[in-house]
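Lab notebook, bench 4. The sequencing result for the construct came back, and we need a structural model before the next group meeting so we can plan mutations. Quick request posted to the team channel:

Model the 3D structure of this chain.
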Amino acid sequence: MANVCGSPNQRVVIGQVYGGGGNAGATWTHDFVEVFNPGGVAVNLSGWSLQYSSASGTTWQVTPLSGTVTPGRYLLVQQLPGSGGTMPLPTPDVVGSVGLAAGAGKVALVRSTTALSGACPVGGEIVDFVGYGGVSCFEGAAPAPAPGATLSVMRGAGGCADTQNNGSDFTVASPTPRNTSTGPQTCGGTP
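Done. Here's the predicted structure in token form:
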């Protein structure tokens, strides 16, 4: 699954996934997903979506996206809250209504708002794909590790690591939600 849309400088990736929001022991009240632009030009996400399916699920829940992500910046997509957690997220750039599993699931960044289908969807509209924990589908040779109520899966190098292998691109880390107001991250000379 490729994450190039247009030219090599015009690309976005999933930077972080946190499904423990509001769970027992969690700091943050909401689940969230970050979209990150490691490329050299701005990307308009109008008409795009983030989609989620459970670890072995075949149906996908869709969160339409909007806004433009400039080079080196993040877009914070807030999802459902739980009954726990002590801190609200920073101001989200997009608000969705999907509950993510804390330990295992699949998230796709899609250049369409049409729901994906199947346990392991493929196609040119999928821009990036992250399978974490014990999942049926992931990008590359291995899934991202399993996070939990107090941990997210975060793309290495501030969002810049992208070998097309979830197992090597992501690590578990303390969830750090970043939005469009967060300072830029430089990837190999860009932004």
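Confidence is low (pLDDT under 50) at residues 1-7.
Will bring this to the meeting.
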